[in-house]
């Protein structure tokens, strides 16, 4: 470096052109080559060079010609110091190594000594090692046996925890949820031991295990039963939700039918006491939902008994749900087999207090309608409860007995009420309408029958009850009507009064079911009284017109007697005189009507009597006309009208119901077996008919319409009444399109 410094100073600037030298000289001169290499190298980028410069820089103060020499000495001195330090440290390491080597040599001597001793001992204990090896093999064999025994015991024995669970609580004898896995485990062990005995034949361990598990199971079931017995004593619906273990207990007890039966009996005993207490509380303190004691309604028997029956029914529903909750984990067949019997036993606790209160309430009740409603109430709840508690249960029998008691009191009271009303029945008034006593009886009957219609359940013996009610009410009523009618002097008045009473009875009875036979009886009585009126009125008309003499002689005439005109009183002059009088009747038929006919209260019956009277008169007239038209009778110059000609005037007097010719069935009237309701209009305008609950057949066709024909007197609509349902409360309504002539004309079912 010093040379480089000196060289740099000595090199003149003008020597630069002389720098180039030929290549051969530069290659052969190593110094030159090194200098060129040095010049060409970029030392400022060399990390190693920079480290060296950084290390040397602190050692150089001022740069002069002696710097290199001083630096060299400093470096040599530094190197010497480092070598001394290394030597000192190496001496320490060497001391440790020598110490370790000495210890290794010592250990080697000790190990050699131990090896020699062990070898000596091994030679001395060779027999002991053989015995040890044999013991080790025996230990392995015993361990294998131990494992097999442990596995066997683990499979065929209960753990201590399971045994404690099966024993139950030492305090109160109850069980926990751990009981049931332990019980299932004991049953599995019993089954496995039985299978082991079956597969291996004589197996003493299997026999012992079976006996032990059998005893364990018996004790466990006894513990289970005692636990159920205790829980049932404090049983309530809310408690069951918290004690789910009770449901599991019944499911586990299915294996022992006898114990299950005893457990169910315990439920019945507990629930009987509970439901009886709740019933007494509801009667005296009130229920949670209502808050008022049921006894407060004791003055109203219907409300009182209805509330008691409703509470009992609701309580039984709660008991049924409780039983289903308790037995929900059991086989469904267990619930089906025991539900009805259990509810029957539980409900038996309510029979005596319920019966006692009902009998006390019935003792002071005299209203027949209320009594019949109570009977309907008993029937309704009996039908509702019987499927739940069984028809032979004590509660079902109690309700049935109370129902029969109520019916007996009802019939007795009904007879008394009817007799009391009939005892005040007076003689008929001049208008021949039913006296007030008749209406009172019918109102009573209507109230009773409407009670049946409004009942929530259908009675199986309804028809029998209806007939008995009718016998209690209608039979004495009709007898009293007959007795009251004896105060009248005219047979016609008797017939009209009786007919009015029967019409009122018929109008009420027809509204209810199971009345066919009674309606037939009433209808027969009505027709009998109608016959009296029809016969009397027809006879009066025929007598007043003189037609009766002609009719009798014409009906009795035989061709062997010769021409009818030759018989005295049947000559043409006499016949003409009668026909003149008959024309007067046709012109003013109302003058020939009996006064009693207008007093008939039923328009239908009144028109029926008039129609039948016309039938009889026309029939008699037809007999006479047929004789007049017969040439054999030699009638000449006799002025008479044909039957068709007299129909107009006769029917004109009947604006609503009259006589007309049915195009298919011939003459029809309201008194015949299959009548045709004939409606007349004064003008042939089109009509519209509507029929409720009836299928109407057209006369002479099958398209389902009514036939309509036009006569000189107006339009006629035929509706066969035989197509209407028998004794139904249907109505056939006819609306005419011309409201100016008729307005909303409604006809109730007229005949059966």
From TrEMBL:
Domain Conserved Oligomeric Golgi complex subunit 6 C-terminal span(s) in chain numbering: 204-638
Membrane topology, as annotated: Peripheral membrane protein
GO cellular component terms, A-Z: Golgi membrane; Golgi transport complex
Biased composition (Low complexity): 10-20
SMART domains: COG6
Pfam families xref list: COG6_C, COG6_N
Organism domain of life: Eukaryota
Coiled-coil intervals, chain numbering: none
Spans annotated as Disordered: 1-27
Keyword Cytoplasm annotated: no
GO BP terms, alphabetized: intra-Golgi vesicle-mediated transport; protein transport
Record keywords: Golgi apparatus, Membrane, Protein transport, Transport
Function according to Swiss-Prot or TrEMBL: Required for normal Golgi function.
Family the UniProt entry places it in: Belongs to the COG6 family.
Protein name as it appears in the record: Conserved oligomeric Golgi complex subunit 6
Lineage: Eukaryota, Metazoa, Ecdysozoa, Nematoda, Chromadorea
Gene of this entry: Acey_s0012.g1798
């Amino acid at each position: 470096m010093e040379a480089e410094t000196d060289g740099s100073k000595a090199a003149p600037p003008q020597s630069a052109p002389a720098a180039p030298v030929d290549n051969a000289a530069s290659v052969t001169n190593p110094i030159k080559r090194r200098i060129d290499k040095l010049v060409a190298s970029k030392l400022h980028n060399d990390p190693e060079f920079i480290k060296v410069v950084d290390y040397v820089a602190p050692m150089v103060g001022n740069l002069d010609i002696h710097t290199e020499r001083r630096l060299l000495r400093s470096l040599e001195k530094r190197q010497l110091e480092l070598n001394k330090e290394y030597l000192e440290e190496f001496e320490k390491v060497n001391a440790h190594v020598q110490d370790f080597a000495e210890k290794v040599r010592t250990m080697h001597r000790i190990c050699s000594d131990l090896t020699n001793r062990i070898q000596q001992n091994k030679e001395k204990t060779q027999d002991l090692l053989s015995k040890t090896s044999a013991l080790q093999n025996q230990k392995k064999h015993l361990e294998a046996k131990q494992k097999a025994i442990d596995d066997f015991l683990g499979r065929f024995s209960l753990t201590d925890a399971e045994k404690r669970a099966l024993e139950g609580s030492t305090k109160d004898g109850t069980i926990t949820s751990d009981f049931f896995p332990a019980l299932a485990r004991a049953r599995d062990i019993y089954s496995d031991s039985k299978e082991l005995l079956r597969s291996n034949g004589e197996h003493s361990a299997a026999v012992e295990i079976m006996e032990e598990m059998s005893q364990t199971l018996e004790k466990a079931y006894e513990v289970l039963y005692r636990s159920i017995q205790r829980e049932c004593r404090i049983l309530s619906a809310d408690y069951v939700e918290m004690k789910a273990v009770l449901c599991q207990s019944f499911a586990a007890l299915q294996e022992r039918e006898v114990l299950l039966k005893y457990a169910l009996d315990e439920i019945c005993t507990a629930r009987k006491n509970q439901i009886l207490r709740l019933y007494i509380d509801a009667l005296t303190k009130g229920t949670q939902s209502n808050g008022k004691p049921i006894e407060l309604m004791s003055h109203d028997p219907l409300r009182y008994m209805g509330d008691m029956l409703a509470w009992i029914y609701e309580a039984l529903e709660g008991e049924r749900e409780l039983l289903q909750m308790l037995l929900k984990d059991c086989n469904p067949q267990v619930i089906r087999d025991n539900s009805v019997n259990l509810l029957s036993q539980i409900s038996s606790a309510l029979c005596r207090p319920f019966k006692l209160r009902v009998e006390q309430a019935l003792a002071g009740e005299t209203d027949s309608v209320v009594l019949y409603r109570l009977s309907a109430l008993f029937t309704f709840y009996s039908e509702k409860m019987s499927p739940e508690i069984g028809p032979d249960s004590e509660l079902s029998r109690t309700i049935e007995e109370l129902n029969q008691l109520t019916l007996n009191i009802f019939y007795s009271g009904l007879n008394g009420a009817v007799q009391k009303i009939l005892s005040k029945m007076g003689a008929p008034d001049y208008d021949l309408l039913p006296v007030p006593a008749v209406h009172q009886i019918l109102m009573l009957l209507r109230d009773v029958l409407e009670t049946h219609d409004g009942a929530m359940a259908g009675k199986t013996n309804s028809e029998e009850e209806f007939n008995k009610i009718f016998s209690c009410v209608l039979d004495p009523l009709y007898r009293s009507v007959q007795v009251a009618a004896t105060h009248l002097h005219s047979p016609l008045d008797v017939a009209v009064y009786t007919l009015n009473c029967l019409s009122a009875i018929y109008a009420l009875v027809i509204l209810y079911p199971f009345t066919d036979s009674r309606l037939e009886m009433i209808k027969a009585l009505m027709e009998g009284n109608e016959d009296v009126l029809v016969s009397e009125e027809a006879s009066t008309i025929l007598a007043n017109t003189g037609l009766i003499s002609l009719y009798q002689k014409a009906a009795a005439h035989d061709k062997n007697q010769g021409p009818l005109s030759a018989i005295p009183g049947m000559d043409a002059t006499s016949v003409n005189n009668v026909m003149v009088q008959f024309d007067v009747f046709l012109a003013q038929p109302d003058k020939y009507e009996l006064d009693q006919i207008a007093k008939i209260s039923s328009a239908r019956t009144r028109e029926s009597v008039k129609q039948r009277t016309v039938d009889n008169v026309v029939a008699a007239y037809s007999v006479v006309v047929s004789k007049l038209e017969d040439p054999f009778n030699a009638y000449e110059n006799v002025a008479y009208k044909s039957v068709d000609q007299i129909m107009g005037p006769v029917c004109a007097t009947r604006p609503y119901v009259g006589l007309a010719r049915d195009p298919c069935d011939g003459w029809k009237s309201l008194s015949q077996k299959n009548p045709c309701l004939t409606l007349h209009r004064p003008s042939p305008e089109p009509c519209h008919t509507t029929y409720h609950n009836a299928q109407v057949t057209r006369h002479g066709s099958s398209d389902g319409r009514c036939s309509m024909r036009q006569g000189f007197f107006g339009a006629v609509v035929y509706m066969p009444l035989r197509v209407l349902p028998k004794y139904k409360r249907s109505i056939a309504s006819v609306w005419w399109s011309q409201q100016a002539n008729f307005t909303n004309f409604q006809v109730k079912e007229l005949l059966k």
